[in-house]
Design a protein that fits this description.
This protein has four domains: 290 residues, no CATH class; 89 residues, Immunoglobulin-like (Sandwich); 97 residues, Immunoglobulin-like; 147 residues, outer membrane lipoprotein receptor (LolB), chain A. Helix content is 37%, strand content 27%. The strands form five sheets. Strands 23-22-21-20-19-18-28-27-26-25-24 form an eleven-stranded antiparallel sheet. Strands 2-8-7-4-5 form a five-stranded mixed sheet. A hairpin with a 4-residue loop joins β16 and β17. It starts with a helix and ends in a 16-residue tail after the last strand.
């Protein structure tokens, strides 16, 4: 790293340091959020139902502001039903009656993370098809968004010019003093306050057009406090500019810039501290560079910019501009491209075109600044015009309710049946457990060292409605984060893992409990070969016994099975009941000592195992003798007629399954298998036949 002396003497060293710092900040590991847009509907937009639903349910991509988010449903006769206060990402409207016709749903979501507002509407029909195009996610840019974008432009220009004036004033005061520099802070500070206050008021009224909306908006969690702090800092800076304490204007403007970042898109990224810091650096560096350029355009140096006085100030500013440009360009452009699904969005989406315009204007500023620095063609006014274009594009980008990448995320979650994203696919690593009375399936995608998406399928015994009211917290390396809702039974989060870590899922709400998963070394090997060999060995058995425990009933259920190929089974239950099946005859009794009752029955096929009968997906080796010195454990997933099922099988050195763990809705089964090919015979009860 360059020492301090080198940094003072070598412009290239300052530039490299700035580039390195900017790159580190811009590549800060982030989990992007998709704004509070709808990712799951019940009923679906445009759906035709046979009868009216008892409840309309919307699930959003972020936690909602309970005070400002709302929904309502208008029935065919004009009756209106309002939503209950949201619970995290869930919003529900209870309906009464069963009218035939078209129902209209309107919703407004205010993110509890960054305070951004989205509106949407859709229809569904009862007994009729609603028809028409359904716009449910609120992604269109409205006139209200554009108006708020115009107010943002005023605020951004005011803050940038104020920061630029403070910098130019400081550079002019260095020895020897540049006496001809005169800056007027008050107009730019007034513009920042006017724009900032206008944005906050307009956003509050956009969320809820009521007298109390502004107070609620400014007191609802960190986003509201950041907005209040921003306007307060802008007002304080303007007030201080009229007093003798002008030296305090600089910290007030810096606080306003930081609060601006804390109230923006960065607040919705998790963890938020790094992105907010990046955005604050972007605003401050843009003020120093772009704001400084605007201020230079307003000055008239004796002898012009090619004269000695003009060149002296340009030299001082150029030394600062190198680093501030690097910070501004990298933090701005790289953060902007994170909002694109791919580079094609730069030309095929309005958001991408605005970002392209901003990038071109930044390049133009760079060229003009280089010409001025080389004293070839100083053109501060042309640079100031480019600054105005960049700020206008920035305000327009901030106005978009849902940028392309966030829209793509929401649409990806919405694809297919509700919660299908949480179900394992080939190539995933998946593990199943129980938490309280809920089955919990954890899927790691792509299941390789590094950044992964964690998908959790959770289904309590009470079903999907109860699942929607269940909160899941993920604990990794002692740090807890609430997982994002992606459907009634779906939760998701992003993690960075190397393999071998323990992930704990803490469940609360409709059921309470926890499940701990220990990850294998990543990537986990495929278990296909082991499973194929194991299945051949298990199917060749002539006899075996199984001890089985089934939960989550208050009193666990136990059963002892004896199996004899090709068609004989005996099982004794913890209730005292026993059953023997021999060929096409079933013998059963309810209690020990009770008489046996025989009846015809369909023959059973032995051997038959709990994992037989459905397609196996995401088969992985969780542990092997080379890793633990113990038996091999394989895990996989099946989607049968009874719903999603997770299996874990322990395979011994003999190639046979010795333990089975199965997790499905309200059915947590553990089996111990033994007496393989033992010399026993299953016969009808005494006196009941041969």
């Amino acid at each position: 790293m360059p020492d301090l002396h080198t940094l003072r003497r070598k412009p290239w060293a300052r530039l490299l340091l700035g580039l390195g710092l900017a790159l580190a900040l811009a590549l800060w590991p982030l989990r992007a959020s998709a704004h509070a847009t709808v990712i799951s509907f019940h009923p679906q937009p445009g759906e035709k139902l046979g009868s009216a639903p008892g409840v309309v349910q919307l699930i959003f991509s972020e936690p909602l502001n309970r005070s400002l988010s709302r929904a309502d449903v208008a029935t065919p006769s004009g009756r209106r039903f309002d939503s209950d206060p949201p619970e995290n990402e869930l919003m529900q409207v209870q309906l009464a009656g069963n009218e035939l016709g078209v129902y209209t749903v309107h919703w407004t979501s205010v993110s509890a993370l960054d305070g951004h507002v989205l509106h949407g509407a859709f229809t569904f029909g009862v007994g009729v098809a609603p028809g028409g195009t359904q716009e449910a996610s609120g992604v269109a840019l409205s006139w209200t968004d554009l108006a708020i974008g115009g107010l943002r432009w005023l605020e951004y220009i005011g803050l940038l010019v104020s920061l630029g004036m403070l910098l130019i004033g400081r550079l002019a005061s260095d020895r020897p003093r540049v006496t001809w520099v005169r800056t007027r802070l008050r107009p730019s500070l007034a513009l920042a306050l006017l724009g900032g206050a206008g944005v906050v008021v307009a956003e509050a009224l956009n969320a809820s057009p009521s007298a109390m909306a502004l107070l609620t908006y400014l007191t609802s969690g960190p986003p509201g406090w950041a907005r209040a702090a921003r306007v307060a800092a802008e007002a304080a800076a303007l007030t201080l500019a009229f007093t003798r304490a002008r030296h305090l204007v600089t910290p007030a403007v810096v606080v306003a810039a930081i609060a601006l970042a804390a109230a923006g898109h960065a607040a919705a990224v998790r963890p938020a501290l790094g992105p907010i810091f990046v955005d604050a650096v972007h605003v401050l560096s843009a003020g120093a560079w772009a704001g400084g350029i605007v201020v230079l355009a307003t000055l008239r140096p004796p002898g012009g910019w090619r004269g000695a006085d003009g060149r002296a100030l340009l030299d001082r500013f150029s030394r600062v501009a190198l680093i501030t440009f690097a910070l501004t360009a990298l933090t701005g452009v790289l953060r902007g491209t994170e909002e694109l699904a791919d580079l094609g969005d730069l030309v095929r989406t309005p958001y991408g075109l605005a970002l392209s315009t901003k990038s071109i204007a930044v390049i133009a500023m760079l060229v003009l600044s280089t010409l001025a620095w080389r004293r070839v063609l100083p053109a501060p006014r042309a640079e100031a015009t480019a600054v105005a274009v960049v700020v206008a594009a920035t305000a327009l980008l901030a106005a978009y309710p849902l940028p392309p990448a966030r829209l793509a995320e929401a649409e990806a979650i919405q694809e297919g049946p509700q919660s299908s994203q949480a179900l394992p696919k080939e190539g995933d690593l998946t593990l199943g457990e129980s938490a309280g009375n809920a089955v919990v399936g954890l899927t790691l995608r792509p299941g390789k060292p590094g950044a992964n998406s964690v998908w959790v399928y959770i289904l309590p015994a009470a079903g999907e409605t109860a699942a929607a009211h269940t909160t899941v917290d993920l604990v990794l390396a002692g740090k807890s984060q609430t997982m994002r809702l992606c459907g009634a039974t779906c939760r998701t989060a992003s993690v960075v893992v190397a393999g071998g870590e323990s992930l704990e899922l803490r469940v609360s709400g409709s059921t309470t409990g926890s499940a701990t998963f220990t990850l294998p070394p990543l990537p986990a090997p495929s278990g296909t070969a082991i499973a194929s060999s194991m299945q051949a060995r298990m199917q060749s058995l002539k006899t075996l016994r199984i001890n089985e425990t089934v939960r989550p009933a208050r009193v666990p259920f136990y059963a002892d099975y004896s199996l004899q190929a090709p068609d004989r089974v005996r099982y004794d239950l913890s209730t005292g009941a026993s059953t023997i099946i021999v060929g096409g005859t079933r013998y059963s009794r309810d209690l020990p000592g009770a008489p046996w009752v025989s009846e015809p029955a369909l023959p059973v096929v032995v051997p038959y195992y709990s994992w037989d009968g459905a397609r196996i997906t995401a088969l992985s080796v969780i542990s092997s003798p080379s890793q633990t010195g113990a038996d091999t454990v394989i895990s996989f997933f099946e989607l049968g007629g009874g719903g999603p099922i997770w299996f874990s099988l322990t395979v011994g050195s003999d190639g046979l399954v010795h333990q089975v763990q199965m997790r499905a809705q309200a059915h947590f089964m553990d089996q111990v298998l033994y007496d393989f090919d033992a010399p026993f015979v299953i016969a009808p009860p005494a006196g009941q036949g041969s």
